[in-house]
């Protein structure tokens, strides 16, 4: 339970996921923002109009999955690092999970990392496909991970294997 241990319940997670058929159409953002707080930079950063306008700045973001193209512009604007992009069409066996990352050292492309779930438990090994670090991202790097498809909705962070 989020209020007791910081981990959302299965019901809370399910409430923000795109429909299964949307996942077959390419990358899509998922906002795992579970608390009503005064925040709306994701709405202002979405050029597709996929994040619905807030009636109250304390509302949680709502994504129109049909409008979302998975560009990820909202990810680096989220101060809570609560937005992820999932691409189930990456390959037959793997999905691409794009994760906001603000730690050092940065992983390297090709590196194998330990993919972890919302509770901090290791769930798979993942390969770093891309480390996106541009000036417009304002120091929030986006790390692209290839993960086993069956883990794409569980993987939400990672650990490097060793400190370099």
UniProtKB/TrEMBL annotation:
InterPro entries: 4Fe4S_Fe-S-bd, 4Fe4S_Fe_S_CS. The keyword Phosphoprotein does not apply. Keywords: Iron, Iron-sulfur, Metal-binding. SUPFAM superfamilies: 4Fe-4S ferredoxins. The keyword Iron-sulfur applies. It comes from Desulforamulus aeronauticus DSM 10349. PROSITE patterns: 4FE4S_FER_1 (PS00198), 4FE4S_FER_2 (PS51379). The lineage of its organism: Bacteria, Bacillati, Bacillota, Clostridia, Eubacteriales. GO terms for molecular function: iron-sulfur cluster binding; metal ion binding. This is 4Fe-4S binding domain-containing protein. Residues 59-88 form the 4Fe-4S ferredoxin-type domain. Gene3D superfamilies: 3.30.70.20.
